[in-house]
Design a protein that fits this description.
Elements: E1 4-7, E2 10-13, E3 16-17, H1 18-25, E4 29-33, H2 34-47, E5 53-58, H3 65-73, E6 77-80, H4 83-91, E7 99-101, H5 108-117, E8 121-124, H6 127-139, E9 144-151, E10 173-174, H7 178-187, E11 191-197, H8 208-226, E12 233-235, H9 252-263, E13 272-275, H10 279-282, E14 286-297, E15 302-306, H11 315-319, E16 325-327, E17 337-342, E18 351-358, E19 365-368, E20 389-394, E21 397-402, H12 407-410
Parallel strand pairs: 4-20, 5-6, 5-13, 6-7, 7-8, 8-9, 9-10, 9-11, 11-12, 12-13, 15-17
Antiparallel strand pairs: 1-2, 2-3, 4-14, 14-15, 14-19, 16-19, 17-18, 20-21
The structure holds ligand LLP.
Ligand LLP binds near residues 162, 203, 278 and 374.
Function: Specifically catalyzes the decarboxylation of meso-diaminopimelate (meso-DAP) to L-lysine.
Keywords: Amino-acid biosynthesis, Decarboxylase, Lyase, Lysine biosynthesis, Pyridoxal phosphate
EC number: 4.1.1.20
C-alpha cells in the first residue's frame, strides 16, 4: 500500500496534488511520500517483533538525505557499499553503530573511515578482504567486527543482472570454503567474528529461495559452533520484490514468518536477524514526474517525447523493466492511443515505457510509478543533462530535498589544458 491516489480527477501524493508540485519545482522531478516510507519500514520492523532483529535499509536504493533522515528517525540501521553512502548516512543523522558495510571491493580508506566512526559490522566478501581489514584495523589500533558473506548457491529466479547468490556470481565466499575462512578470521587479532550474511538477489517474488538460502546458512552456523565459533547475528540481505505491474511478492510479514520458522528452536532463537531491504521500502514510495514535450505520429508508431530520459531513470533501458505511467490529470477529451514514451537522449534504448495506452496532448504531465528505488541513485549526466530535483511530501507539506542540478555544476570540476 502506498499514498499515491487519484482524487477529484488528479493524482495526489498524500494530500498534495502532484501537478502543483510539478508547477512549483519543474520536471523531471522525483517525488517521495514520507508516510509510505514509514509504513514500509514499519512493516519490516513489526514482522520481526519478538525476535532480536535490526532493519538495515540498503542505501543504494535511494540515498537522498531526506529519505535517509526519515528512516534514521524511525531508528533504522543502514546497509552501505561505499564511503560515499556512509557519509550520506552520517549527514542524514543516521547512527554509525547501526551500519553494516557490504560490497566486494572495499578500499583501505573506506575501511579506515568506517572503523573511525564505529560501524556495527563489515560484511566481508573474500579471504583477501579479511587480511586487509585486519591490517587496517591493526594500524589504527582497533578491532573490526565482521561477518562473512557466503554464497549459498541458490537460484533467486530474477533478472540475471540482479541475481547474486549463484556460484558463478562475483559475490561472497562459497559454502565449501566458508569454515576455513571463518577459522582464519578467528585467528586474526584485529577482527571479531560476529555474524554471517548473504544476499541472493533483488526483486524476488517468492519466499522459497530465501528459505533455501537460510537452511544452508543455518547449516553453516551449526558447523561453526562445533568448531568453536559462535555467531551473534544472521544477515539475510535484501531482495524482497515489489509490485510493478502484476507481480505478487510476499508481504514482509510472510517473508519474516518463513525465516522465523527456521529459527524458532532453542539453538537459534537468540541469533539476531538483520535484513537489508531497499526496494521494498522505497520503490513504491516514489514517482518520477515528467512533461510531454512533443507528440510524434509515424506510420508505425506514436511517440510521446517527454522531458525525462534514461539518464533520469535507467531501469527500463537497462533491464527492460516495466513501470506504470499515469497521467496526473486523466483526460476524457482525447482518445486513448498507444504511445511509446521516450526521452530526448540520443539512444534507441532511451524509453520509459512502450505501448502504453494514454490520452495525451503536448504539455501534459505524467508520473512514472515505483520510481523511488534505483531511480535517482542510478541517474547520470549523460547528454550533459543536469540531474532531476527531489521533493519529499509529508501530509500537506512538501520539502525540496534536493534542488535541480545546474548546467554549470556539470563541468565545475573540469579545466582547459594549457594552450
Ligand atoms: N544488500 C545487498 C548486499 C545488496 O547487494 C542489495 C542490492 C540489497 C541489500 C538491497 O536489495 P533490494 O532489497 O533493494 O532488492 N539496480 C537494480 C537492483 C540492484 C540491487 C543490488 N543489490 C534494479 O533497479 O532493479
Amino acid at each position: 500500500m502506498d499514498h499515491f491516489h487519484y482524487q477529484d480527477g488528479e493524482l495526489f501524493a498524500e494530500e498534495v496534488p502532484l501537478a502543483a508540485i510539478a508547477a512549483e519545482h519543474g520536471t523531471p522531478l522525483y517525488v517521495y511520500s514520507r508516510a509510505t516510507l514509514e509504513r514500509h519500514w514499519h512493516a519490516f520492523d513489526r514482522a520481526l517483533e519478538g525476535h532480536p532483529h535490526r532493519i538495515c535499509y540498503a542505501v543504494k536504493a535511494n540515498g537522498n538525505l531526506g529519505v535517509l533522515s526519515v528512516l534514521a528517525r524511525l531508528g533504522s540501521g543502514f546497509d552501505i557499499v561505499s564511503v560515499g553512502e556512509l557519509e550520506r548516512v552520517l549527514a542524514a543523522g543516521g547512527d554509525p553503530a547501526k551500519v553494516v558495510f557490504s560490497g566486494v571491493g572495499k578500499r583501505e580508506e573506506e575501511m579506515r573511515r568506517a572503523l573511525e566512526v564505529g560501524i556495527h559490522c563489515f560484511n566481508v566478501e573474500s579471504e583477501a578482504e579479511l587480511e586487509r581489514l585486519d591490517r587496517v584495523a591493526g594500524e589504527i589500533g582497533t578491532r573490526a567486527r565482521i561477518s562473512l558473506r557466503v554464497n549459498p548457491d541458490v537460484d533467486a529466479r530474477t533478472h540475471p543482472y540482479i541475481s547474486t547468490g549463484l556460484k558463478e556470481n562475483k559475490f561472497g565466499i562459497s559454502m565449501e570454503r566458508a569454515p576455513e575462512a571463518y577459522a582464519r578470521a578467528a585467528d586474526l587479532a584485529h577482527l571479531e567474528v560476529v555474524g554471517v550474511d548473504c544476499h541472493i538477489g533483488s526483486q524476488l517474488t517468492d519466499v522459497t529461495p530465501f528459505v533455501d538460502a537460510l537452511e544452508r546458512v543455518i547449516g553453516l552456523v551449526d558447523r561453526l559452533k562445533s568448531d568453536g565459533i559462535r555467531l551473534r547475528h544472521l544477515d539475510m540481505g535484501g531482495g524482497l520484490g515489489v509490485r510493478y505491474r502484476d507481480e505478487t511478492p510476499p508481504e514482509p510479514i510472510v517473508h519474516a514468518a518463513a525465516l522465523r520458522n527456521l529459527l524458532e528452536d532453542r539453538a537459534h532463537r537468540d541469533l539476531e536477524i538483520i535484513l537489508e531491504p531497499g526496494r521494498a521500502i522505497v520503490a513504491n514510495a516514489g514517482v518520477l514526474l515528467t512533461r510531454v514535450e512533443y507528440l510524434k505520429h509515424t506510420d508505425h508508431k506514436n511517440f510521446a517525447i517527454v522531458d525525462a530520459a534514461m539518464n533520469d531513470l535507467l531501469r527500463p533501458s537497462l533491464y527492460g523493466a516495466w513501470q506504470a505511467i499515469l497521467p496526473l490529470r486523466p483526460r476524457t477529451d482525447l482518445p486513448l492511443t498507444l504511445y511509446d514514451v521516450v526521452g530526448p537522449v540520443c539512444e534507441t534504448g532511451d524509453f520509459l515505457g512502450k505501448e502504453r495506452e494514454l490520452a495525451l496532448a503536448e504539455g501534459d504531465l505524467l508520473a512514472v510509478r515505483s520510481a523511488g528505488a534505483y531511480g535517482f541513485t542510478m541517474s547520470s549526466n549523460y547528454n550533459a543533462r543536469p540531474r532531476a530535483a527531489e521533493v519529499l511530501v509529508d501530509g500537506t507539506a512538501t520539502h525540496l530535498v534536493r534542488r535541480r542540478e545546474r548546467v554549470a555544476e556539470l563541468f565545475a570540476g573540469e579545466s582547459l589544458p594549457p594552450a
